Amino acid sequence: MATSAKATAKVGNSRSLDFAAPLRGKGAASLGMTDRGSSEPGRFGVYGGRYVPETLMAALEELEREYEKAKRDKKFQARLDELLKTYAGRPTPLFFARRLTEKLGGAKIYLKREDLLHTGAHKINNCLGQALLVERMGKHRVIAETGAGQHGVATATVCALLGFECVVYMGTEDMRRQELNVFRMRLLGAEVRGVDSGSRTLKDAINEAMRDWVTNVRTTHYLLGSVLGAHPYPTMVRDFHRVIGREARAQILRAEGKLPTAIIACVGGGSNSIGIFYEFLKDKKVQLIGVEAGGRGAALGDHAARFRGGSPGVLQGTYSYVLQDSAGQIALTHSVSAGLDYPSIGPEHAALRDAGRADYVPASDAEALEATTLLARTEGIIPALESAHAVAEVVKRAPKMKKSDVVIANISGRGDKDIGILRENLKID
Amino acid sequence: MPLTFYKKPALVAYVTCGDPDLATTRDIVLAVIEAGADVIELGVPFSDPVADGPVIQRASERALKQGTSLAQVLTLAAEIREQAQSTGLIVFSYLNPILCMGMEKFCKVARAAGVDGALVTDLPVEEAGEYLRAMREHDLAPVFLAAPTSPDARLRRIAEASLGFVYAVSRTGVTGQRQQLADDARKLVQRLRRVTKLPIALGFGISNAEQFAEVGEFADAVVVGSAIVDTIERNRGGEAVAVGAFVRGLFARSYHPAAYAR
Asked: Lowest CB count within 10 Å: A122, A128, A376, B12, which one?
């Protein structure tokens, strides 16, 4: 890092250009074009990185340092474990779905019940972890983005629990379709700010949260809700959700005496899926299947399936697959599920996909809605529309599998928040 | 090389290209140059401008509705270069449109168009290795942002990677006008002076002759962006004339515009 006085003087003497300035730093083969190896912090193969305005760099470095310290701090981990247990309700059950299994007539189906957690989704795992970090960093103001509202509710909840000021950014289209969660956040004392730009959904909420953060970075923590954004977020958020897979692995070994054939989870940014996948990455025989939002069709703008029609690019701090046009402008997306309605995907998923370790498939709006009704009527569980995408893939896949096969579907959240959309779409009144 | 600050303070003027359309942008830029701008930042509109306030967000939306692309901005740069040989031209963009075009192709086309340098808002020095290599190969100046939140070690790294000048951000926040200049600004320029001899341009929030003169006391150049884009937005049909007058007005407390007008 030491400056060469000579080089500095040389550049500075003429007020014109000088190309003798040495290239320094580890970024010499960056921009994701060259594989820098997954060993580098924040890189997953060629993906990931830290692409943000300079103003945020110091805050990201501070967050990374604090997180690394907290990871090794037994007191921090003990406090987090205690809150996960006594406040959030961990461990969550792994439930054998007998009637669904019989109905589909193939593999045995288990459901990982993250929907039973406090606030109704897996999001609370990450929010508790980051909230304890906020306390360590001595900040008092927390901002967050939300799509379906589940992350917003979980953020508002931990802020109430620890006494932080909380502002949640949410696209106005999402506020309309997830009205109930808007009210829940306000009841919890959070300020919900509507975002009226772009498609008025998750992507636009993240833009606005980043603008707030760049302005108030000295006092504010950005509690990002998925494995997205600049390093250290994709790694840190994944780590806070690894508990899902750790529990599921132990539970399935206890229940079946063997590892599952496949694990299926929905992928918006990809936090619940990476959370359940991660502990199984080394078990090469376990198939990992991520389900993206197939929306209403295959044309750009009609879906949010980044691996069908997306290409590598940089959006909101990270290098990953992005739905974009031929000039690099980010495309609009569509999904019946607000939580999956996002044009990029967590960089670790991009790496897992390129490496062939995980497969990613789409499920359409219609398939997700159908799966919601099916799970409600066979098991008495109304899944969130996001999680219903995972159930839709189970419906397609399980019948083709052997009866000795075992599948785990992650029910990342519950469907109460979707009642309005379900009423509009299912016409069962 | 025309990336030179002729006067003190110099003016670095930002426009969002394609707002309201590319032909008008060309007229606006020529008017700004005639009024005495030293360097022009040709803003490439992006769908997700996280570092920009409402004024440039709206301009970007209008420009994208016109279908404005990076390739078109580079064509515009070539047209401007034909008319103005001694004014610095910098492409100001978010990373993704450049990645999409390809780093190498971007640099090649930009150089051929007579562009002098580039500033990529969401590309910090750590991630800039390949960019720096391509920029150097094509004789283009990479300009990086320095922020009030950047520790000294980062400032050194930013200064080392930058050529032409360093762009100091006057305060934490997005682009846009402010009543008062933050204390941050002066401190940041002082800290930068200790690590570089490169000229320093200060930007974000500067919109009038008083602020222009104030910044001129401690920085080498002043970047004015949102105030120009705002003038464009308010003067439909008469953009170039209005912006030319606005820029001349900026100099009122600093020096006689006629002395520098080209």
From this structure: A376
